[in-house]
UniProtKB/TrEMBL annotation:
InterPro entries tied to this protein: RidA, RutC-like_sf, YjgF/YER057c/UK114
NCBIfam families named among the record's database cross-references: Rid family detoxifying hydrolase (TIGR00004)
MF-aspect GO terms: deaminase activity
PANTHER family, per database record: 2-IMINOBUTANOATE/2-IMINOPROPANOATE DEAMINASE RIDA (PTHR11803), PROTEIN HMF1-RELATED (PTHR11803:SF58)
Superkingdom of origin organism: Bacteria
Signal peptide span: none
Pfam family, one: Ribonuc_L-PSP
Name recorded for this polypeptide: Reactive intermediate/imine deaminase
Organism: Polaribacter vadi
Family: Belongs to the RutC family.
Length: 126
């Protein structure tokens, strides 16, 4: 049985999908981009600020399912420019305990929604 997870503390979906789906004890999140949920505006001041907004959005989606980054078992990071990897990785890494960090892939893509620079999705288990 699936349960729709939704919070106003993260950006509303911009298409026919939900912020996350809880199936049993496993949470599947949709990708988050750097939309400030309070203003609806993209945060593109720097790649660090953009990645921070993505992770803050993800934190709120996880919280809506009563989970934290410690519950994340898999992350997928999509970036527009692999040259930005180190900066994105530094911000991303600050949200995890390195010893218990999830599995992950990082992929460079041609384009992302709203032509942002980074999108992150996660799978978490409680």
């Amino acid at each position: 049985m699936k349960k729709i997870i939704s919070t106003t503390k993260a950006p509303a979906p911009i298409g026919p999908y939900n912020q996350a789906i809880l199936s049993g004890n496993t949470l599947y999140t949709s990708g988050q981009i750097a939309i400030n949920p309070a203003t609806g505006e993209l945060v593109l001041d720097s790649i660090e600020a953009e990645t921070t907004q993505v992770m803050e959005n993800m934190k709120e989606v996880l919280a809506a399912a009563d989970m934290t980054f410690e519950d994340v078992i898999k992350s997928s990071i999509f970036i527009a420019d692999m040259n930005q990897f180190a900066k994105i990785n530094t911000v991303y890494g600050s949200y995890f305990n390195e010893e218990t960090a999830p599995a992950r892939e990082t992929v460079e893509v041609a384009n992302l929604p709203k032509f942002v620079n980074v999108e992150i999705s996660m799978i978490a288990v409680k």
